[in-house]
Input
Amino acid sequence: MRNLLRNFGLTVVILLAVLSAGFLPGLATAADTPKPPTKVNITISRETTYILGPVNEDGSVNYLEYFNNKYSRGVTKENNAFVLLLTAIGPKSIDKRVLAGILTRLGMESLPAKGEYFINLYNYAPALKHKKKVNKQFDKAKNGPWSAKDYPILADWLKANEKPLALAQKAAQRPRYFAPMVYSSDFAPLLDLYLLSCNRVKRVAGAMICRAMLKYGSGDIDGAWVDLLTAHQIGQYVGQGPFEYIFGHWASNLARRGMAKIAVSGKLTAKQARRFLAEYNKLPRLDRFAEMENRRLCTLDTISFLAEGGSLDTWGGAFDGLKKLNQMVKTASPNLIDWNEVMRAINRLYDRQIKIYSISNASERELTRVKFVKEIRKLQAEYWNMPEARYLSKLKDLIENARKSQPHDGKQVTQEMIKLVLAADFPTFGRVIEANELGLMHDELIGIALALAAYKAEKGAYPQKLAELSPAYLKTIPADRISGKPLIYKTRDKGFLLYSVGTNQLDDGGKKGGWSKKKGWYGDIIIEVK
Output
């Protein structure tokens, strides 16, 4: 089965999870996809299409070319990290048309069919009976120190991948990253993209983190740190793409967790701790604001695709919200849906989300976010989990009533269309802000932990108060970016407990947090030396 990403706006989290598990059905061929009409009934403006070009011959905005142009500016074959990463992963299982388009855009020649390319762990495991066991071992190995005796198959797998991992290290030293986006058919939306970064490049980063923890387990802390820096940089590169934030965040976050383990290990010399702290403070962070803007454009592209006569039949059946959306478009005649208004409504919601994201006061931002999410959930609730028979009956009545009116009144149909887009496209709407705050807060705690490690290595014990770290180790002591109050720091025996109160804004005494459907995020964000 072809490993393809079908990205639909904010459903990216769900779709990527399904893709990673390998459950996504096959794609439609170009012959299965209807041809677009000669004229698109969508006005190009900031309020509708959001961007004004480039424009296709049929009058629609070419979102794919917009992204390729945006991310390729200033990129050359020599400074592009993706060129080396593509050389490391090879051409196997890549659609021929897509690969040809990628190579052309990158100015590369054809890749040999056979070579010392990166081997996925699942393909390396010598027998099916070992695969589940090895995957469990991999989950443990990338999250903590281990040895070749613990997991010999993993150790052999890393040895088999030495050359592609060396290429990945060279790639991480390049200043730019551009992975061209190419459609596999002539008429398709952005959700039909074949994004190599999402699966295969991410796996390279995962192997690098796994090797870092092997080096850490053997006492090679400097080598482990270099591998973690490499994986983090690859994650940053992947995550800056239009639709790969979740994969880039996975790699960068996992690398930072490895750095946190090193920070609290008690094994750092003062020189190491100082150097690691300086390097850590220079690490970039993924821009969640840019991700929201990219998801906006993906959603608008999908709406435009449906307005042009596109169908989500082939893969929409895998997701209830997309299936209902497709049924609505197929049933309603074109004049009953005001596509411009659908786009305007979605843009207004994105504008509101970004405005919330920009609120500087932590408590006000969280209260506004919760209120906004409740409003969105109310709009979505009508269609979530609605049985198909009931939905089809409602849809039939809605369309018939609209057609009977004189003149035909499509306002209600358009409003229902907006709700369907919300139901299909925004399962995590509002949570992006919350997740961003949690991630940034955890990142800052790791930086403080490295400063604490340097302090202890030089003075023999941890400070009684965080204020003692400034200005020698940290210019300023970060506040809790979620509550706006000081972080909580406690020394205990020869260790410490450092934490933020988390998005529930309650001091749970340093109890490690988690997430549940009923509570949302709960507990504290902690880092500690026991």
In short: The chain has 20 helices and five strands.
